[in-house]
Amino acid sequence: MTAGNETSKRLAMIGLYGVLIPMGLLTLIPFLWLLTASLKSGDTFFTGLFLPHSEDGSINWGGLTLSNFIRLFTEQGVGRAILNSLFLSSATAVLATLSCAAGGFALARYQFRGRAFLTGLVLVALIIPAPLLLAPGYQWIYRLGLLDTYTALILPAIAPAFGVFLFRQAARQSVPAELVEAARIDGCPEPAIFMVVGLPLLRPMVGAFLLITFLGTWNNFLTPQILLQSSERFPLAVAIAQLRGVYSTEYGLIMAGTLVSIAPVMILFLVLQREFIAGLTAGAVKG
Amino acid sequence: MSKPSDAPKNSGRLLATITPYALVAPFVLVFVVFVAYPLMLSLVLSTRQTFGPDTSAFVGFDNFAFLLSDPLFWTAVRNTLVFTAGSVFIQLPLALGLALLLNTRMLKGRALFRLVFFSPQLVGLVFVGILASVVFEKRVGLLNVGLDVMLAPFGGFDLDFPWMERFVMPAVILAALWMYIGFNMVYFLAALQSVDRSLTEASMIDGAGPVQRFFAVTLPAIAPVAGFVTLLSVVGSLQLFELPYLMLGGAGPENRGLTIVMYLFQWGFEQGDLGYASAVGWVLAIMLVACAAVYRQLLVRGERA
Q1: How far, in Å, CA of A13 to CA of B167, rounded?
Q2: What is the ipTM, given to two decimal places?
Q3: B199/A222 Cα distance (integer angstroms)
């Protein structure tokens, strides 16, 4: 390899990092700003881009305060909204994962009458856009007397076609039909085969789908906004959106509320990021 | 092992027959009760004018006729299409570019870069909307203050620059760019990593430059994923609602942030006309199905070629 080639390679690498590092910083700056903005309140909010500044331009460390967070939990009842979000997201994630895994496993590894029809139904359900169901869904939930209940939020979300489809693909790939047959011959009771053979082999998809559903429910705004009426039942998404409307100029308070809402999922993701990204791309690239 | 008697054998066979149905039952039940039935209800509703959930009157196709003649609906369509164009023609090429950079073989810290670019995706539309509503705020927002600090040597930036009054859709596109670029990049990166190395190397031996190589080898190889990502992007963009709704606290000045789903939301849940909102839903559904059909056609043609 010639020296010129070596130099041009080094230049290319410098150019590469020269683009990627500034882009990365640009991506992270809103997070940093969110953090510092949530620690400023009232007058100090208007001083300094990140940290509060004094009149003479030096950093005013005393301007940093936790008062926004204290107000969120004492006067705004955000603790309640966090618990609501945790409950809704966990319940939906666990139930949806179980029923999607069961459905997908059955469609992939059982021969039964109606299988082709049900598989077709899943594919049709995949293309029905959510906004189409908003108005009739509201009408129906109203007639069922379920307005302002968690049942109305959880029940329709426990078996999304998207999940059944993902698990069907995963089961076809990673649950060998011979293994199902072997378990049957070994005397494993039929209803237990899904639990004993299916779920363990589907574990990577179970992890990814739990996360996707948890995150999706945590960040869902429109359905709870429409179906819930009592503020003590509001999840974070609705509660913080309302805070934005009511305290429109208390930026520090709003940013603190946003930070509190996104911190739990960010932490969850940092811990489990491998499973998460694998799950997200599995459906697209392999499907 | 003892010889099993006939009774458990029969019940075992029955169990084996029932089990698959029991396993798909949750999906079927939820589908029938919360998808199929509301879907039929939606057809009925779209021919009625309603006043809240209890009172309604039959109006035939008037909802659709009014919809097509309502200039506000066309404003919503135009804004939604502007956003969709921004997603497809600005965001996706940038995401692909980022993925190409991250796919460089010598790059160190790929996982860290991927994590950084992906992280805004976790924030969720509502919270990105709320965060952006303050970021684009005059005088206090990150964007104007940040630009003012950066451009200080050149006389600074107008702190009162009215993003949310005059540049509503560009601001929404920018917020969506921050949020989704890493998400799309992850798809492109996964596709790039599965491109056959021997093909790229063969084209290098043949003397193809990086640009030629991209168009001759890489792009055809990732075309299926690129098509899928484009479909996801278009379908998602056409359903835009939370981002502008929370950034602007509604449709914004002169309805510049009004989208199709926001129009549906306003009619259904602010005016209480669930019938009209259903009609809007059907028009949107037809647009989405048309996009999916175009995608299928392209897919079929791609497979034949």
Answers
A1: 37
A2: 0.90
A3: 47
Residue corresponding to tokens 């520090």? A252
Angle made by CA atoms B112, B89, B208, in degrees to the nearest 5: 70
Residue A211 CA to residue A269 CA, distance in Å, equals 8
d(C-alpha A200, C-alpha A174), whole Å: 10
For residue A155, the chain B residue with the least C-alpha distance is: B30
- The tokens describing B99, both together, are 């993925």
Residue A269 is nearest to which of B19, B122, B178, comparing CB atoms? Answer: B122
Which residues 61-100 of B are in CB contact (within 8 Å) with A? 98
Token pair of B130, please? 């709320």
- Burial grade of B142 (CB within 10 A; 0-12, 13-18, 19 or more): buried
Would you list the DSSP string of B97-131? HHHHHHT-TT-S-HHHHHHHHHGGGGG-HHHHHHH
B268 HSE (CA, 13 A, CB side):
29
pLDDT tens sequence across B242-296: 999 999 999 999 999 999 999 999 999 999 999 999 999 999 999 999 999 999 8
Cα–Cα distance for residue pair A167/B136, rounded to 1 Å: 41
Nearest CA among B277, B261, B286, B258 for reference residue A138: B277
* Tens-digit pLDDT profile for residues A37-95: 999 887 777 777 888 877 777 787 878 889 999 999 998 989 999 999 999 999 999 99
Residue A191 φ/ψ region, left for φ over 0, alpha for ψ in the -120 to 50 degree band, beta for the rest: alpha
Contacts of residue A166, defined as CB under 8 A and 6 or more positions apart, other chains included, come to A100, A104, A205, A209, A282, A283
Interchain pair B125, A226: CB under 8 A: no
Q: Is B239 helix (H, G, I), strand (E, B) or coil?
A: coil
Please give the Cα distance from B292 to B113 (Å, whole number). 32
CA angle centred on B108, ends B106 and B109, rounded to 5°: 150
Mention every residue, 6+ apart, whose C-beta is less than 8 A from residue B235. A129, B288, B291, B292
Distance CA B28, CA A103 (A): 9
Cβ-based neighbours of A56, under 8 Å, separated by 6 or more: none
* H-run or E-run covering B49: strand B48-51
Amino acid at A118: L
Q: In which element (H, E) is residue B48 found?
A: strand B48-51
Residues of A in contact with B42 (CB under 8 A): 132-133, 135-136
Q: What is the pLDDT of residues A184-211, one digit of tens each?
A: 999 898 889 999 999 999 988 898 899 8
pTM, whole model, 2 decimals?
Answer: 0.91
